[in-house]
Amino acid sequence: MRLELYGKTISSRLLLGTARYPSPAILAEAVRRSKTEIVTVSLRRETAGGKAGGAFFQLIRDLGVQVLPNTAGCHSAREAVLTAKMAREVFGTTWIKLEVIGHHDTLQPDVFELVEAAKILVSEGFEVFPYTTDDLVVGEKLLAAGCRVLMPWCAPIGSAMGPQNLPALKSMRAEFPDVPLIIDAGIGRPSHATAVMELGYDAVLLNTAVAIAGDPAEMAEAFAKAIEAGHIAHHAGMLEPRDLAVPSTPVIGKGVFA
Amino acid sequence: MKLTVNGEALELNAGNLADLLAKLDYEGDWLATAVNGDLVHREERAAHPLKEGDRIEILSPMQGG
């Protein structure tokens, strides 16, 4: 029941962001306790002559996990492509979490620029993890552009609202049965993660819900278990809801006392 | 010469990008650089001359989600 992402086989279905933890030590502990194998990182202007970035990079390298750099904060295909190239230079990976933000308040992806950036990056040898909406047509365009993974949101980044449109996520799963689908953004609690995994999603990418928790490392473990539970439940085949009661205890052979 | 480095205006003479990094005390093999919106690879920095008005970005690994 392992997951394959661009030829890399992973066992943990939790991908963890590295932002907003109370300290580097707590981030490291959360990564260890979650057993995640993939963490997202970013690139920012260096102000300390390289020392700040160097210290963070060393921490990530020591964790021994796969790095998934992002293009967070980019608002155009051009900006995202340049950021991706700079990330490849720094992190030495062709993996890129492609974010092109289109809306100031919701951080909703600009799907037009996203598809454009994906085309360019794929042609330049990148393996693109696009942060997208739950729109099927956009999903098709991204796959046509050469993406082999899709990362739909389930609610705005950092909102903790959980899945806002389960039917849309369900049709995306049905429409792309063989494409690894990772829920990215909007998860607030472990039960949200279980819910999307029960739909048959392949993995969940989280950050704020873990980083801002009272005990981030403990929450990371809770999420890892919730994601695993949802995944196993999906495979086990779940009972569909029905309108009327159905007795679970056999009726035949019951005592008659009247 | 006038340069803009990470959004800040600087008055500094640097023959090339590698020279600029050295003068500003930047070090480490984890830095990524761009000049006027184009990536300049690590190994190309010494051969990349700077000119008046160039905009330079120096990025490094940071926490992200």
Topology:
The complex is a heterodimer of chains A (about 260) and B (about 60).
Chain A: E1 3-5, E2 8-10, E3 14-17, H1 24-34, E4 38-45, H2 51-63, E5 66-69, H3 77-91, E6 95-98, H4 111-123, E7 127-132, H5 136-144, E8 151-152, H6 166-175, E9 182-184, H7 190-198, E10 203-206, H8 208-211, H9 216-236
Parallel strand pairs in A: 3-4, 3-10, 4-5, 6-7, 7-8, 9-10
Antiparallel strand pairs in A: 1-2
Chain B: E1 2-5, E2 8-11, H1 17-23, E3 32-35, E4 38-40, E5 55-63
Parallel strand pairs in B: 1-5
Antiparallel strand pairs in B: 1-2, 3-4, 3-5
Any overview of this molecule?
The complex is a heterodimer of chains A (258) and B (65). With 258 residues, chain A is α/β, with parallel strands linked by helices. A 5-stranded parallel β-sheet of chain A has the order 5-4-3-10-9. A 3-stranded parallel β-sheet of chain A has the order 6-7-8. Chain A has a two-stranded antiparallel sheet with strand order 1-2. In chain A, helix 5 links the parallel strand 7 and strand 8. The mean pLDDT of chain A is 95. By secondary structure, chain B is mainly beta. In chain B, 11% of the residues lie in helices and 37% in strands. In chain B, strand 3 and strand 4 form a beta hairpin. The longest helix of chain B has 7 residues. The mean pLDDT of chain B is 95. At the A-B interface, strand 4, helix 2 and helix 3 of A face strand 3 and strand 5 of B.
Search tags:
heterodimer, A: 258 residues, alpha/beta, 5-stranded parallel sheet, 3-stranded parallel sheet, 9 helices, globular, B: 65 residues, mainly beta, 5-stranded mixed sheet, 1 helix, 5 strands, 37% strand
